[in-house]
Design a protein that fits this description.
Helices cover 60% and strands 0% of the residues.
Length: 126
């Protein structure tokens, strides 16, 4: 078991495995947030074709969960940040193609802000 402050309780190998899972998932989220930040800062952010660049950059997010060993732990389900962000950006792209006048920058900022809120809730892990 992991607590919000980073302390833990339980079998050391399982605790270490769980810490590894959260650490890897956190890294993926941080990578996605950095990709969104770069897109938001781009002078081309409001150009719809630039969303393809954002999607390409998201697709380059490493698979941080590859090779993780759960040591027999069951019931651990964490968000797939890369896939979630990709789908959200695709939704923006589709809306723009259908004539939406919403600001791409503002929509990306909203996604980033929500992801940062999730990041703030992650337990501290070694």
């Amino acid at each position: 078991m992991l607590f919000e402050d980073g302390t833990s309780d339980g079998e050391s190998d399982k605790v270490k495995s769980l810490q590894d899972v959260f650490s890897r998932n956190r890294k993926e989220l941080q990578h996605v947030i950095a990709t969104l930040s770069t897109a938001i800062e781009s002078p081309q952010v409001e150009v719809i074709t630039n969303l393809a660049v954002v999607l390409n950059k998201l697709s380059e997010t490493p698979d941080y969960m590859d090779g993780v060993d759960l040591q027999g732990i069951v019931g651990v389900t964490l968000p797939a940040w890369k896939a979630t962000a990709t789908h959200m950006v695709q939704d923006i792209e589709q809306a723009k193609l259908q004539g939406s006048t919403d600001s791409i920058r503002e929509l990306l900022e909203k996604i980033k802000s929500n992801f940062e809120k999730f990041l703030a809730k992650y337990p501290s892990v070694a």
